[in-house]
Design brief:
By secondary structure, this protein is α/β, with parallel strands linked by helices. The chain is built from 17 helices and 21 strands.
């Protein structure tokens, strides 16, 4: 075979091989396109149906039909929502597969004046306008089971971290319509305050709907308000939430006591200083509050804590420099505040279902618990401060910012318990009844002296207030509340464990709202401690110089008091030199901090940007050298 025929044969063989390769790739692509093969590479497995959802689907007694309404053919629908709709529908197909015949998925494209649009409107999926003169669009979900219906009016990519929880909860609400009764007792208007309709019209105010977490509870529970002066808790209340219980009477404490002893589940949010309470009484003088006057003040369960072996100091607030939160200090400045605790998984109990999957919890102005052993009650810490950077500061000092609390920031090596679960045999706090001055007002000994119960304690009541849980964001389907941390998740997990379906806890806790820079936070905490030491040294130098000036001033008489002597001038000049030098040292602390953070950032950039290309280059050089050696 001559050279020309050899070249032709090589060309033909290569072309045929290329054609076969393209044919095989096309065939594989068509086959794979019809297969449901997915690989979830996220650290939290966000796109894999969780164990909690699968447990819910296994327990379904009746079929559940999921009707997915999305205006896919509408030109008014933004492309971003179309992409997100594919993700939602893909997740709904996972529910259908995991339901093993109990879950049926139906998808509808509600075009204008179509039957699908009529059904969407009939179910309550509200149309939304993307433009003033455009056609309405739909993006919602309806769950139907045994003649019952539940609706999700709209989806938003902003709520993606809670997507699976929202769908699973929708299924549970339609599958099990009975709502447990949750009692709520509070000195704050957490459930909303009734307003005169005429006053609302005159002032153009919206009705007070209460805190968002309790609005969410109403979707799954019958929420019943229990008066703060109640002397009995109804027997059908499955769990009782007590928020900021101030100055409870012995009769009310006895009612709580008997509720726990008969097996009731109690969730108590006590607080050494409630921001919500202070905001509700803005005219309150902090000094009067410290002296016990006025309406605001700390909260505790008093005699119940004594009987349960619980100590809660209402005069102290936990400060943790490792868990400091950056707050607006005015004048465009941000200030690290160690009394506003931003807690990470290192502070949360990893082995407990309530906190295992949480990523960040904020507790503003939290108190600390301590417990006495040997009273028949098992204590499980749920949230704790760090050990090396924690101290207790006076409640009053914490209210006036970093400058007031700085002198008390002296870590003592004690790790404080900020939230805990108590379980076991509780003893009554009123074995002899309630004493009173008049015989007619005395309350005889209670019916129950002891009993098994469960109590969950939180050292802060503000962490479930809206401003510490959510931010309002505008979307195509109106303003939506987006969580800014896991505060609502923590509270919802607690309620669901004590009164609801525990399967939802593992679903609710999925997703990370942010990933804290642990190394950076550690550097900042170390710099804060050094900054504090330097600043205290400066303050001591200021005081020494001022005392020296005062001593020299007292030696003068008459008009000489207004004239600086040579000794005073020398002392003042020395003080100024010390001040300048100390401030230079403080600036160096900040420079070193920024330098360390910048170095860390540079290393991360090198790893993320340069490492992969470098590995490819090294592999290519190694591969080429090996082929050359083999040839």
């Amino acid at each position: 075979m001559n050279q020309k025929n050899k070249s032709y044969a090589r060309f033909t063989t290569g072309a045929l091989g290329l054609f076969c390769l393209l044919f095989i790739i096309g065939a594989v692509n068509m086959i794979v396109a019809n297969l449901r093969i997915r690989a979830d590479l996220t650290a939290e497995k966000l796109y894999t149906l969780s164990k909690g959802s699968r447990e819910v689907l296994k327990k379904l007694d009746n079929d559940v039909t999921l009707k997915f309404f999305f205006s896919r053919s509408s030109t008014e629908m933004p492309m971003a929502l179309k992409s997100y709709a594919d993700q939602v529908q893909d997740l709904l197909k996972e529910y259908e597969r995991a339901g093993r015949g109990r879950v049926i998925l139906e998808a509808f494209d509600p075009k204008p004046d179509s039957e699908a649009e009529e059904w969407a409107q009939r179910y309550g999926v509200e149309p939304q306008q993307t433009s003033m003169f455009g056609q309405p669009v739909y993006f919602g979900l309806v769950a139907v089971s045994d003649g019952r219906e539940q609706v999700m009016g709209g989806f938003s990519p902003r709520s993606e971290p809670t997507l699976e929880y929202d769908i699973t909860r929708l299924i549970t609400r339609v599958a099990w319509p009975d709502k447990p009764v949750i009692g709520v007792m509070s000195s704050l208007s957490v459930l909303g305050a009734p307003m005169n309709p005429m006053m609302m019209m005159q002032r153009r105010q919206q009705p007070d709907q209460g805190w968002m977490v309790f609005q969410e509870l109403r979707k799954d529970y019958t929420v019943r308000e229990i008066p703060i002066e109640a002397d009995a808790i109804e027997p059908d209340v499955r769990a009782l939430v007590v928020v900021h219980p101030k100055n409870l009477s012995d009769k009310t404490l006895l009612a709580l006591d008997q509720f726990v002893l008969r097996g009731g589940r109690l969730i108590a949010l006590v607080d050494p200083f409630s921001i919500a309470d202070f905001q509700a009484n803005p005219q309150q003088n902090p000094m009067m509050m410290q002296m016990g006057g006025g309406q605001t003040g700390p909260s505790t369960l008093g005699k119940l804590f004594d009987a349960w072996g619980v100590t809660f100091d209402t005069s102290k607030i936990v400060a943790d420099m490792t868990c400091s939160t950056k707050l607006n200090a005015g004048n465009g400045r941000a200030e690290e505040n160690p009394a506003f605790l931003s807690l990470t998984p290192a502070n949360l109990e990893k082995g407990d279902l309530l906190t295992a999957q949480l990523s960040q919890v904020m507790l503003p102005f939290s108190g600390a618990f301590s417990f006495t052993d040997g009273n028949g009650i098992t204590v499980t810490p749920l949230i704790q401060s760090s050990k090396d950077d924690t101290s207790l500061i006076d409640q009053m000092n914490a209210q006036f910012g970093m400058s007031a609390m700085r002198s008390q920031l002296k870590p003592d090596g004690v790790q404080r318990i900020l939230a805990a679960r108590l379980q076991g045999t509780f003893k009554t706090a009123f074995p002899n009844g309630i004493e009173a001055e008049e015989e007619s007002e005395k309350v005889p000994p209670p019916a129950l002296i002891s009993g098994n119960g469960v109590v969950v304690l939180f050292g802060d009541a503000d962490f479930i207030q809206d401003q510490f849980c959510f931010q309002s964001i505008p979307t195509l389907f109106g303003n939506m509340a987006q969580p800014i941390n896991d505060n609502m998740t923590l509270f919802g997990n607690t309620v669901e464990q004590l009164a609801g379906r525990e399967e939802l806890i593992g679903v609710r806790s999925r997703g990370q709202f942010n990933r804290p820079f642990v190394k950076v936070d550690k550097l900042e905490a170390e710099a804060m401690k050094k900054w504090q030491a330097e600043e205290e040294s400066l303050q001591r130098k200021l005081q020494d110089a001022q005392q020296q000036l005062n001593a020299l001033q007292q030696e003068k008489q008459g008009s000489e008091r207004f004239i600086l002597s040579k000794e005073q001038q020398a002392a003042l000049e020395q003080f100024r030199k010390q001040e300048v030098e100390t401030r230079k040292q403080l600036k160096n602390v900040r420079k070193n901090l920024n330098r360390d953070i910048e170095r860390l950032g540079l290393r991360l950039k090198l790893v993320n940007i340069a490492l992969v290309p470098l590995m490819v280059i090294v592999f290519g050089v190694w591969r080429g050298a090996r082929r050359k050696i083999n040839s």
